[in-house]
Every structure is written in structure tokens, then in C-alpha cells.
Write a structure and sequence with these properties.
By secondary structure, the chain is of the alpha+beta class. The chain has one domain: K homology (KH) domain (GMP Synthetase, Chain A, domain 3). Helices cover about 60% and strands about 20% of the residues. The protein has 5 helices and 3 strands; from the N terminus they run ααββααβα. It has a 3-stranded mixed beta sheet with strand order 1-2-3, covered by helices on one side. Strand 1 (about 50-60) and strand 2 (about 65-70) form a beta hairpin. About 10% of the residues are buried.
């Protein structure tokens, strides 16, 4: 059982390290186009809130994209994230219109909240206390 866990861990790291140049280009393209879509959404629906895309990871077959979002200010981020999850099909449709000349099929969008800034703040507070 221990060897099985090591194998899964190794495969996850190996897949992440072996991201191809095409995957990186597609991820950057998706990040750029989604940032335009979220900029329009913040102007119309979420006034006073900044939504930024911190990371985009695309699967090897380009069928799934993992998108990590950060929100500023953090007050209503769970409600906004739930609204984004509900509007996932609309966002995918808008992205497919933007990507129609570059890609044949738009990947499935999986959104996640990026908590790295909160993690960095907690580490800084701990280091200041020492």
C-alpha cells in the first residue's frame, strides 16, 4: 500500500513536470481570454471586486482545464465563486467564441479558489512572531 501511494505521488509530479510547450501555450491563451471575460463580468455584475486568474493547467489531451482564481477583496469570495460555478457553461461558451480560430474544441473548465496569498500571509505572521 505504501508503494502505491508513492507511485501516485510520483505520477502526479511527473505529469506536472512534463507539461509540453503546447500545453503551456494553450494555458496562457485560456488565461488571457478568461481574464478578458472576467474583466467584463466584474464591470457588469461584480462591481468593486477584482477576479484574477493565477494558474491554468491543461490536460494532455486538452479536454480539461484547471483554473485557479483569486479574489480581492476576500469578503464575498465564496458567493462569487458559487456564481462563477453556476455560470460555468456561459463562461465556456464565451471562451469558445474567443478560441474558435485557435482550437477545435474548448476544454471543460474546472474552477478552484487559489488560497496561496492567504497561505503566504499566515507564514509571514508566523515568521514575524518568532
Amino acid at each position: 500500500m505504501y508503494i502505491w501511494y508513492i507511485n501516485i505521488y510520483y505520477n502526479c509530479i511527473f505529469d506536472f513536470e512534463m507539461e509540453s510547450n503546447r500545453q503551456k501555450k494553450v494555458a496562457r491563451l485560456i488565461q488571457k481570454d478568461l481574464s478578458d471575460i472576467f474583466l467584463y463580468m466584474t464591470k457588469s455584475s461584480y462591481k468593486g471586486i477584482m477576479i484574477s486568474i493565477t494558474h491554468v493547467f491543461v490536460s494532455k489531451d486538452f479536454s480539461v482545464a484547471k483554473i485557479y482564481l483569486s479574489f480581492f477583496p476576500d469578503e464575498n469570495k465564496k458567493e462569487i465563486f458559487q456564481d462563477i460555478q453556476k455560470q460555468k457553461h456561459v463562461i465556456k461558451h464565451q471562451l469558445s467564441i474567443k478560441l474558435k480560430n485557435q482550437m477545435r474544441k474548448t476544454p471543460e473548465l474546472n474552477f478552484f479558489i487559489d488560497n496561496s496569498l492567504e497561505h503566504y500571509d499566515n507564514i509571514n505572521k508566523i515568521l514575524k512572531d518568532i
